[in-house]
Amino acid sequence: MEYSIKEIEELVKTIEEDKKELDYESFRKKHTGNNGILTQYLKKIIDIPNDQKAVYGKEINSVKEDVLNILEEKKKLENTYYSSKKIDPTAPFDINSNKDELQKFFTLEGSKHPLTKEVEILVDIFSSMGFDVLESRQIDDDYHMFQSLNFPKGHPARDMYDTFWTEDGLILPAHTSTMQNRALKSFGPPPIAVVLPGRCFRNEATDAGHEHTFHQIEGVYVDKNISLGNMIATIKTYLEKYLNAELEVRIQPAYFPFTEPDCEFVISCPFCNKAGCSTCGHSGWIEIMGCGMIHPNVLKEADIDPDIYTGFAWGFGVDRLTMIKLGINDIRYLRSGNLNFLRQF
Ligand SMILES: [Zn+2]
Predict the structure, then answer these.
(1) What is the Cα Rg of the chain in Å?
(2) How far is the CA of 338 from the centre of ligand 1 (A)?
């Protein structure tokens, strides 16, 4: 193989570019890793004709020295960054990760988390159906978690939710229904159509199907003459849009203090068409969410007259829906921060 000075010039040009663009680890991998560009050039010396070996060796070794110097410089910069950086653990994420500052040290390659993407897709579907959107809070009070939802003090159903409490008596929402009273008040008087996406927390042991933290989207619809039929049609419509499948649906009894009647919404499995598969636990059907007609006490608490208006509400876990849609079999992956997992989406 002939030695060509042009090739080495190309290599030097790439190195100069990468020196500006890449952080330590990406630069190291690209140039001196097992399959690195420089590594390949160094291996090539065996194939260079004997009369050109000396020149080639000299050139490539000088490039190698430059690369090692660049790596040393980058390592120093990163060490300086880490040792000088004080992180405020209570601050929002972007305060601890100033983009301009980080860019001096690292290559910033980011993408949206699969859950964020799915929440956006779902919210788009609801918007197209005429729903307003109000994000839920990540810390709330007893009134919004329980009292406004027809769980008076001492109500046994309060124990259905493994609620986290702060020392000051505040609550990490165990469901996004915490927003129902606020939504009914701020979007009222009816007609009201609003979805309430947000993060929920429960003090429970984690396994493939359970997490202490998850996302929910609550929906609330109130107007004159609203029936269970409107609820079934609405939920069926957005699920079919989201899962891009025609679904058979049914409802079965459940219990929630804030709805009457209370239902569990069940859909035919979109993957096996009711034949039975691992996603539906070989039953052909998937219980997808709780829903029901809003309890008259909940409407009254939000100054809506239940003799004039009726409405329905639902709450589903975005994680569960995302898992069904993307074929993820363990909910814990979603918050693991495992890049090999996240890069698949
Ligand atoms: Zn199935």
Answers:
(1) 29
(2) 28
Q: Where are the beta strands (DSSP E) in 161-201?
A: 164-165, 171-172, 192-201
Q: For 28-83, how does the pLDDT look when each residue is reduced to its tens digit (9 = 90+)?
A: 999 999 989 999 999 888 888 888 888 888 999 999 999 999 999 999 888 877 77
Give the bridge partners for 200, in sequence order: 214
State the span(s) of the chain assigned CATH 3.30.930.10: 114-342
The burial class, CB within 10 Å (0-12 / 13-18 / 19+), for 233 is: exposed
| pLDDT tens-place string over residues 162-196 | 889 889 889 999 988 999 999 999 998 999 999 99
286 Cα–ligand 1 center, Å: 8
Q: CATH assignment of 114-342, given 1.10.1740.10, 3.30.420.40, 3.30.930.10, 3.40.50.170?
A: 3.30.930.10
Residue 27 DSSP SS3:
helix
